[in-house]
Design a protein that fits this description.
- This is DUF4012 domain-containing protein.
- It holds the Pfam family DUF4012.
- Keywords: Membrane, Transmembrane, Transmembrane helix.
- It comes from Cryobacterium tagatosivorans.
- By secondary structure, the protein is of the alpha+beta class.
- The chain folds into three domains: 192 residues, no CATH class; 185 residues, Aminopeptidase (3-Layer(aba) Sandwich), CATH 3.40.630; 159 residues.
- 43% of the residues lie in helices and 21% in strands.
- It is built from 16 helices and 18 strands.
- The strands form four sheets. Strands 13-12-16-10-9-18 form a six-stranded mixed beta sheet, with no helix packed on it. Strands 3-2-1-4-7 form a five-stranded mixed beta sheet.
- α7 packs antiparallel against α8.
- The longest helix is centred in the first third of the chain and has 49 residues.
- The N terminus is likely disordered.
């Protein structure tokens, strides 16, 4: 080999031929180390998150059961696990790889989820674990308003944490996420929605209750007990009326009356009526106190109730509450049985049948019936305000009554009304379809009897709101008479009334469409009919159809609607709370579960 060749030949250690494979090897080793480190962190974060998320539900259950010690221990474990998940997913190396295609968005989603859950643990769940539902338990008939007020800061902080976490999840682009990551984010999102709804209710309660319970002076609440055996839009004939007075947390019954104490059948409505309400329900809604609940708009009912009360009594009304015997039976699940002045024992199993049916066979004088009902309501009220029973169970049953439209509240305080505006407690229909798409189906008795004790109602609605084009809504309201034809003639006269043949039931059904929709067709048992009313009410299309059920008969009112363009939230049916549950079947093809 020549000298020139020897001079130009470089040592191997300086050769490109060495450094290319060595360099690649080093890179591969480095990447391997990075991959190992990141994959290890991913597994750690995944394991801690999977263990942590169920603990949040456990804390909630323990708090509702009043076991604050167990809730505190579980919250501590939750905080520890979420901190480990957060630490595993928050390093520079992890964040530096979030730009990598496919893997990057999934790494980002896991990091955000870890941050969210840790935020919830530190700022919501751990602080909330110190709260106890027994702080709401009456002692000697009084709710501790100071303890209630002390909860406000903790609840507000927890709610802010949930809102903050939900906003972070909302920013994530879910499209590139792998199946397991996407489903995990979806579960977390659903948990946040559930937690947010719960905290919203608690937050509203701790903000409203001190003032509502007379922290700044006595408050008077007109309480309507709606009789489901004689259906009206929001429940039934408000035959029994009770005045409750709350003063510095202590609640007392200060006056009792019945519908017979008021002047009914007035030549003119008690107040000037809204034209749309009068066109749909007639002026009787303002001429008889028994008919003020025809409309599904409870604030309007409250205004009518206040006007009737003012004409008869001189006590101030600060708010109006609505309850029914079915809701009273729910409370008995929490308080246990109560003994009435008559010697009867009222339980959650016999309250509905006794108050809505058997009482009419026992007493023929309506005043005696009303007195019996008032005594029952007073006895249950006494059990609740004395702190009898389980507080968590009581709150659960009150929530159930609210969800079913059996408990409603209107306040004369504008600030309170604003807080409750979007809740079921307000007894109003949503003003648009953005959050919830509501179809209404309301039952109004036309028999002037107590025959609706024997009426069952079923609702079915199908919607194309999650498919292209203008949405359609098709549905039905099925009314079934459960009266035994052989026993119809033996029913007490006060139950059957004196207008129709014993056992027959005449009913006005009012169907409301979503906001902006049109009601295109109405049928009864498959045959097209012309509604007795068709127009607009409460910013929605509405139709009224009268049907007649002989004992054992079934009447199915069908309808089809076309919706307007716009945003539609989850589909929901709202209607009159009946004596028995009203099953609802919904079909929304294409909507996310």
């Amino acid at each position: 080999m020549g000298k020139r060749a020897q001079e130009t030949k470089r040592p191997l250690v300086r050769s490109f031929r060495l450094w290319v494979p060595v360099g690649l090897g080093v890179v591969l080793l480095a990447l391997g180390g990075i991959a190992f480190k990141v994959s290890s962190d991913v597994l750690e974060a995944k394991a801690q998150l999977e263990a942590a998320i169920p603990l949040a539900s456990t804390v909630q259950k323990q708090l509702m059961a009043g076991d604050t010690k167990a809730a505190s221990r579980t919250a501590g474990e939750l905080e520890q696990r979420t901190a480990q998940a957060h630490a595993a997913s928050s390093g520079r190396l992890w964040r530096g790889l979030e730009w990598v295609p496919v893997a990057g968005p999934n790494l980002e989603a896991v990091r955000v989820a870890s941050t969210v859950v840790n935020d919830l643990a530190v700022n919501a769940i751990v602080p909330a674990s110190s709260l106890s539902v027994d702080q709401l338990k009456p002692v000697d008939g009084r709710i501790n308003l100071e303890a209630l007020a002390s909860m406000a800061g903790t609840v507000e902080e927890a709610r802010a944490s949930v809102d903050r976490s939900a906003a972070q999840l909302k920013k994530l682009d879910r499209k590139p996420l792998l199946g397991p990551v996407d489903s995990g984010i979806a579960r977390l999102d659903a948990s946040l929605a559930k937690m947010g709804g719960l905290l919203e209710g608690v937050d509203n309660a701790v903000r409203l209750l001190p003032q509502a319970l007379g922290a700044n002076g006595p408050k008077n609440y007109l309480t309507l007990f709606q009789n489901n055996a004689e259906s009206r839009g929001t429940g039934g004939n408000p035959a029994a009326v009770v005045m409750l007075t709350a003063d510095h947390g202590k609640i007392d019954i200060t006056q009792q009356s019945s519908s017979t104490d008021f002047v009914n059948g007035k030549p003119e409505p008690i107040i000037p009526l809204d034209p749309a309400t009068e066109a749909l329900y007639g002026d009787k809604i303002g001429r008889y106190i028994q008919d003020i609940t025809l409309t599904p708009d409870f604030p309007y009912t409250a205004e009518l109730a206040k006007a009737f009360w003012a004409k008869t009594f001189d006590s101030r009304v600060d708010g109006v509450v609505s309850f029914d015997p079915v809701a009273l039976s729910y409370l008995l699940k929490a308080t246990g049985p109560v003994t009435l002045p008559t010697g009867d024992t009222l339980t959650d199993a016999n309250a509905v049948s006794l108050l809505l049916n058997e009482v009419y066979g026992r007493y023929t004088d309506p005043r005696d019936q009303d007195a019996f009902f008032a005594a029952a309501a007073g006895s249950i009220f006494g059990a609740v305000t004395s702190g009898t029973g389980d507080t968590a169970a009581l709150l659960t049953q009150l929530s159930r009554a609210t969800d079913e439209g059996r408990l409603m509240y209107w306040s004369g305080d504008e600030a309170q009304r604003e807080i409750l505006a979007d809740s079921r407690l307000s007894g109003t229909l949503p003003v648009d379809n953005a959050k919830i798409t509501v179809v209404g189906a309301y039952i109004n008795d036309n028999t002037s009897s107590k025959m609706d004790y024997y009426l069952d109602v079923v609702n079915d609605v199908a919607s194309t709101q999650c498919q292209p084009g203008a949405p359609t809504f098709t549905g039905s309201v099925t009314l079934t008479s459960t009266v035994d034809p052989a026993k119809a003639s033996s029913l007490p006269g006060y139950i059957t009334g004196n207008i129709f043949r014993p056992g027959d039931i005449s009913t006005d059904v009012v169907v409301y469409g979503p906001v902006g929709a049109t009601i295109d067709r109405v049928t009864v048992n498959g045959k097209k009919v012309k509604p007795s009313y068709s127009g607009q009410h409460l910013g929605r299309p509405a139709v009224k159809v009268r049907v007649f059920n002989v004992p054992g008969a079934v009447r199915k009112i069908g309808y089809s609607m076309t919706g307007a363009a716009g945003t539609y939230g989850p589909l929901e049916v709202r209607g009159t709370p009946m004596v028995r549950p009203t099953p609802v079947t919904l079909s929304t093809p294409g909507c996310k579960k």
